[in-house]
Amino acid sequence: MKILCTVKRVTDYEAKIRLKSDGSDIETDGVNMIMNPFDEIGVEEALKIKESKGGEVVVMSIGSDDSIQQIRSAMAMGADRGILVRAEADMDSNTIAKIIGKVVTEESPDLVLMGKQAIDGDSNQAAQMLAENLGWGQATYAYKVKIEGEEATVTREADGGLETIAVKLPAVITTDLRLNEPRYASLPGIMKAKRKPLATKTLDELGVTPTNYVVMKGLEEPPAKAAGQILPDIATLVEKLKSEAKVL
Amino acid sequence: MTKHLIIAEVQDGKLHNSTLTTLGAASKIEGPITALIMGASSNEAATVLKDYAAKTIFVNSSALNDRLAQPYAKVIAEVATQEGATHVWHGATVAGKDIMPRVAARLDAGMASDIQEVIDGSTFKRPMWAGNIIGTVEVTSPIKVITVRPTEFDKAVGGVGGELVEANIDAGDSSMRFVSFDAVKSDRPALGDARVVISGGRGLKGPEGFKEIVEPLADKLSAAIGASRAVCDAGWVPNDWQVGQTGKVVAPELYIAVGLSGAIQHVAGMKGSKCIVAINTDEEAPIFQVADYGIVADAFKAVPELLEKI
Ligand SMILES: Cc1cc2nc3c(=O)[nH]c(=O)nc-3n(C[C@H](O)[C@H](O)[C@H](O)COP(=O)(O)OP(=O)(O)OC[C@H]3O[C@@H](n4cnc5c(N)ncnc54)[C@H](O)[C@@H]3O)c2cc1C
After folding, report:
1. Are residues B26 and B153 in the same domain?
2. Residue B184 belongs to some domain of the structure
3. By residue range, what is the domain housing residue B267?
């Protein structure tokens, strides 16, 4: 079984995100960069499937050379090889899906595992677009994945409960938080990752022209909330909820 | 010329509230509204829906009873093309997030996810970085696909009394098949609709904390119960209760956060609440920065007292 995982380099979820003083972009100075946590869950799931079924785990990222760090992290966890598609940072999900689609055509994986969303843009689009472009089925927000023969049975985190669907392979699956707990890379894993094959490609080589269907016009910080009050006791709270906030 | 197509969401045969807020959002852009509703058990919801749109298209097909992204996207895209829709809308629910990017890809259209504000016919504001940053995005493709954050818009008023037409559209071949649904059973209001939400975190020590501390207060206030990721992960409560960046977004009149720290990912899902109360033993907990009223106390003492005094 061959699995393709996508990994995106994003700001650390623990970082306090602020705008640069000129408002042009977010301030990344001094902000730690990590692998999108949902992608990490995807890599872990791919490794688990490989451990039980055999096969190969390929990781890809789209971005500058900086993204090699995230590809190496995935390889340190155990992925077999990496692909970096060198591209400008600002691209819409349509373009991202097209790029991944080209890599899928070259690699012919049985399964593509992606994070359900990147925690920077929070768009939650690329995987579904990819599945549609390929004419494949999809299982988003996976809570449990079982591969049996030519089919994946996936339990999904849906509104109101857990939904189980079956999807024919090849397919696109996106991960939710509770699918697994990603392993830490071991020291030998990290050493080995340095020697694992990493290919780089350009958009020209893949034949993708970026679309600009979704253009970023500006970023702002949400208005700060007025400071609240620490109240001495529950009686005061009940009083305030009744007479000040009028919510009781 | 703008032409809206609103995709309705049906849950247990009823029209989902998010469809009404989505209609509310679409009405900010001038143009005729057509609604699309699917599935053989959506009769009742279709009659409700026609009061909100000049035209309601009902694809009454049992092939669409299970809400699977692949056939849904095919049917939605075909209707959008037939109708000449310029704006295709859905609530930013789990279903909307699952289906609509496929629709966008099929229509070769750009998509704005989870919008919180309509600026003009092609420009929208949406939260990014767990709501730390608000981005303004312009969708430049001729067709625009949009999902709407339900908490940020008022419901449409209805009273339109539009026409209801049945359409027959082939759902196509699908590589996806529904297997089962394990519903979280609850008599409480849905998280997204409740006037009061009480959320618990790791400070409640275990599932018993939810039972003994949160539930009685929720009963009294007819509140929905939410939770932090940490306690959903730990299996204390259903996953479906998670509030936050990657869980549900809520904006009730009153949100009571009990024994949860207020991590940015949690706050992303509740900071739009009208009034926020935090109960936490740690006066430094970040939840106090978003709370209107804070009580620095042990939840196991404070909540029963609150229950008694309310
Ligand atoms: C990619 C990603 C996505 C995430 N998405 C979400 C999300 O959608 N929603 C979400 O909630 N989290 C999310 N998280 C997790 C988030 O970062 C926090 O880890 C989580 O919200 C913490 O849960 P908590 O507040 O219950 O636990 P803790 O942070 O451990 O807080 C427990 C709190 O309880 C207090 N306490 C302890 N005992 C008592 C007592 N007796 N009485 C009163 N107070 C007490 C403590 O002072 C503390 O503040 C996400 C994380 C990542 C990495």
Report:
1. yes
2. no
3. 196-309
**Same domain, residue pair B124 and B250:** no
Determine the pLDDT at residue A217.
96
Window B:219-238, CB contacts with A under 8 Å: 229, 232-233, 238
Q: Which residues of B touch A234 (CB under 8 A)?
A: 295, 297, 302, 305-306, 309
Cβ–ligand 1 distance for B242 under 6 Å, the answer yes
Whether B177 is covered by a domain: the verdict is no
What pLDDT, on the 0 to 100 scale, is given for residue B185? 87
CATH number at residue B94: 3.40.50.620
Could you tell me if B61 and B144 lie in one domain? yes
* B48 found inside a domain: yes
Ligand 1, atom 15, residue with closest C-alpha? B229
Number of domains in chain B: 2
CA B174 to the chain's CA centroid? 26
The per-residue pLDDT for range A22-37, each reduced to its tens digit, is: 999 999 999 999 999 9
The domains located in chain A, with CATH, are: 2-243 (3.40.50.620)
Kindly report, residue by residue over B204-241, the tens digit of the pLDDT. Answer: 999 999 999 999 999 999 999 999 999 999 999 999 99
Q: What is the pLDDT of residues A147-184, one digit of tens each?
A: 999 999 999 999 999 999 999 999 999 999 999 999 99
First to last CA, chain B: 54
Query: What confidence score (pLDDT) does residue A227 get?
Result: 84
Please report whether residue B182 resides in a domain: no
Domain shared by B24 and B141, yes or no: yes
Q: Are B141 and B19 within one domain? A: yes
B78 and B159 both lie in a single domain: yes
Concatenate the DSSP letters of all residues of chain A into one string.
-EEEEE--EEE-TTS---B-TTSSSB--TT--EEE-HHHHHHHHHHHHHHHHH--EEEEEEEESGGGHHHHHHHHHHT--EEEEEE--S---HHHHHHHHHHHHHHH--SEEEEES--TTT----HHHHHHHHHT-EEEEEEEEEEEETTEEEEEEEETTEEEEEEEESSEEEEE-TTS--PPPPPHHHHHHHTTS-EEEEEHHHHT-PPP-SEEEEEEEPPPPPPP-EE-S-HHHHHHHHHHTS---
* pLDDT beyond 80 at A235: yes
CB proximity under 8 Å: B 94-133 to A: 94-95, 97-106, 108-114, 123, 126-133
Pair B163, B105 in one domain: yes
Q: To the nearest whole number, what is the mean pLDDT of chain A?
A: 96
Same domain for B286 and B142: no
Nearest CA to ligand 1 atom 38: B203
Q: Which residues of B touch A13 (CB under 8 A)?
A: 130, 264-265
Q: What is the pLDDT of residue A226?
A: 85
**B137/A217 touch (CB, cutoff 8 Å), yes or no:** yes
Q: Is the pLDDT of residue B31 over 90?
A: yes
The CATH number of whichever domain residue B238 belongs to comes to: 3.40.50.1220
